Amino acid sequence: MDDTLKPLAPGTEVATIGTFYMAEVVTSEITERGHRRTVLRWTEDHPWHGIRKGDECTWVHIAGRTPRFIVTARN
């Protein structure tokens, strides 16, 4: 199995693990250390958790560790 991280395409829909708050990828890149740095834009409001639709945040995924979000799909 290939554990190498790859960047996510802009516009990819993702959700946080556990809460399933929806967001979309703004940018995604692989850093010099091999981590994936992804800027997400929230697509829903969850003000009780400090999440506002349209706000952006940066998440870093380190290879071999559980990510904080998953890619979603529409059927």
| Unreliable stretches | none
Q: Roughly how many Å apart are the termini?
A: 27 Å
Broad structural category = mainly beta
Apparent shape = globular
Order of helices and strands: EEEEE
**Radius of gyration over alpha carbons?**
12 Å
Q: How many DSSP-defined strands?
A: 5
Tell me, rounded to a whole number, the average pLDDT: 89
How would you summarize the topology of this molecule?
Elements: E1 13-16, E2 22-30, E3 36-42, E4 56-61, E5 69-71
Antiparallel strand pairs: 1-2, 1-5, 2-3, 3-4
Short summary:
It is built from no helices and five strands.
Structure description:
The protein is mainly beta and 75 residues long. The protein is built from no helices and five strands. It has a five-stranded antiparallel beta sheet, with no helix packed on it. It is globular. The model has no long low-confidence stretch (mean pLDDT 89).
List key phrases describing it:
mainly beta; 5-stranded antiparallel sheet; 0% helix; 75 residues; 5 strands
